[in-house]
Amino acid sequence: MATPNYYHTLGVPEDADDETIKNAYKRMAKALHPDICRRPSAHREFEALQDAYTTLSSHDLRRQHNATLALAKVSDLPPDPIDNVMDEYGIEAHTEKKKKKKKKKKVKVPKPPQQHFPPSEADYEEIPPGYEPRTGFL
Question: What is Dmax (Cα atoms) for the chain?
Answer without folding.
Answer: 106
